[in-house]
Amino acid sequence: MTKKQALAEAWILSQKYPAKSSAILSKLEDTFDISVDEFNTYDSTMVANRALGGDKSVASDKFADIPGFSQSENMSDDEILRIFQAKEELEAKKADIGSPPTEAEWWKAGLTAEQRIEKLRPFYEVKKSEEWEQLESPLPGLGFLTGPVQFLTELVGAPLDHRFDFKEELHERGPFTSFNPLTGFGAWDIAEFNVNPRTGESGFSPELLAMEDELDSLYGIKRKFMEQYTEEGYGEVGGIDRDLASLNQIIMQNKLLPPETLGER
User: Fold this and answer.
1) In angstroms, rounded to a whole number, what is the distance separating the alpha carbons of residues 186 and 167?
2) 172 and 78 in one domain?
3) C-alpha of 54 from chain center
4) 163 lies in the same domain as 197
């Protein structure tokens, strides 16, 4: 007897002899290595399907003389079997992945970093935008001199930014943020080539750069969190849940029961 058959038989017995449920569950665990949780999941499915599907003996009689059809005129028994097998495989895969280790240090660090990023980044972006508006060219009216130099600097220095998770070695305003064609309309307009009137120094203020350093550290923690999250398989759970929901919808709409409960296998 397979585990699926044992579950089906045990469920029928538990319905017929509820006072012996404990003994039945003990037998399942000892003989077939089926846990109480597995039985409860099966029981919940059966109860829900029975409520939705009504009396399946009527369906069986209706299709008694049609080979390969015992529950629905919309799909064959083979297709029904495939649906329930796919459902079981997805549930087993989800069980193998397990629940996220919410008490693990890497998990808590990742969530804390994400929460801090959500709080800090909007303020960083506002301050950065404000300081960009305040930066002044060291050579007013002579942008044709600084533009080419910034372009060459951008070509050499921009790839270095890939060393970081968030921060930049050179801070470019970005394309289509300026009307100055000599800076590629902002594409290679570099903050470090401009003077901050509040500090008297080139580039952004120390306060803004400190915020950027903190965000870079936080994004580094988040990256490591996502790497482990993916490695452990937790990223697959969302897709599994969507597939299960789709299969359950088919089962409910067609009022299907697992084939083993009807003696299909």
Assistant:
1) 19
2) no
3) 36
4) yes
Q: Could you state, in chain order, the average pLDDT of each consecutive group of 10 residues for the chain (265 residues)?
A: 72 74 82 83 70 49 74 87 92 89 94 97 96 82 60 63 86 70 64 89 95 98 95 91 90 78 48
Closest CA to 104 of 224, 220, 216, 218: 224
Examine the domain organization and report whether 125 and 216 are in the same domain.
Answer: yes
Closest CA to 193 of 179, 207, 203, 208: 203
Name the residue range of residue 121's domain: 105-231
Write phi, then psi, for 190 (nearest 5 degrees). -100, 130
DSSP-assigned beta bridge partners for residue 195:
136, 202
Domain count, the chain: 3
Domain contains 59: no
Is the CB of residue 166 less than 8 Å from the CB of residue 216?
yes
